[in-house]
Design a protein that fits this description.
By secondary structure, the protein is an alpha/beta fold.
């Protein structure tokens, strides 16, 4: 038997409660419909309360796969809306990813800067890694400050910060120079605490299983590159 509980003043909490209650096998069709009607009302209230518009600072971090992939989904959305986008790669620049080939179809909207020379174990030259990271940041800052770009993706910049190739304070100061309606995405493992605190949206990808670690499966086209 499902007992009625008092409605929460927090629409997020009430939405989650309704979602959980709706899974009960003892619900009649009429009870289910009533809960879904209430769930619809709660959702409409949540949407109505979110009336503010602002440019976001977005961080995709964590040890799990998918940080850049998720960011590229936002890139595609922005391109679909006709916005101009800039992508600056800080670490993986030595690669020629399939994404770059696909995105080249939007040459009039997209600027793609592959600034890195590969992973640190491949370059084996810390001073040059620092130099390239700072060159990439200068390019990134120009894009961040350019009001023509609605979205700027700083791919693997968190890794450059984690390794000390870039100053966290320098990057935070640069982010403050962005136009009020532009969005900045920063990807990579090990995002520093100060960046996470400043960001508007933070997603941590959690690694549960990976075929490279558990099965020795190599990187494959269409999945990793």
């Amino acid at each position: 038997m499902i007992h009625n509980t008092s409605k929460s003043s927090n629409p997020d909490i009430e939405a989650e409660r309704l979602n959980q209650e709706a899974t009960a096998s003892s619900l009649t069709e009429e009870q289910y419909q009533r809960k879904m009607q209430r769930r619809k009302e709660v959702q409409e209230k949540r949407v109505a309360q979110a009336s503010q518009e602002k440019g976001l600072i977005i961080v995709n971090t964590g040890n799990g796969k998918g940080k850049t992939t998720a960011a590229l989904g936002m890139v595609l959305r922005s391109l679909g809306h006709g916005y101009k986008v800039a992508i600056i790669q800080f670490i993986k620049g030595a690669w020629e990813p399939a994404e770059k080939a696909v995105l080249s179809q939007w040459a009039n909207q997209l600027k793609f800067y592959a600034m890195g020379e590969g992973f640190t174990w491949e370059t084996q030259n810390r001073e040059r890694d620092i130099q390239k990271a700072n060159e990439a940041w200068e390019t990134a800052l120009n894009c961040i400050c350019n009001p023509e770009f609605r979205l700027v993706l700083l791919d693997e910049v968190n890794v450059a910060l984690k390794l000390g190739f870039l100053s966290v304070d320098t990057v935070l100061a640069g982010l403050e120079q962005k136009p009020s309606d532009s969005h900045i995405i920063l990807t990579g493992r090990g995002a520093p605490t100060a960046l996470i605190e400043r960001a508007d949206l933070v997603t941590e990808m959690t690694l549960v299983k990976h075929p490279f670690r558990e099965q020795g499966v190599k990187a494959q086209p269409g999945i990793e590159f």
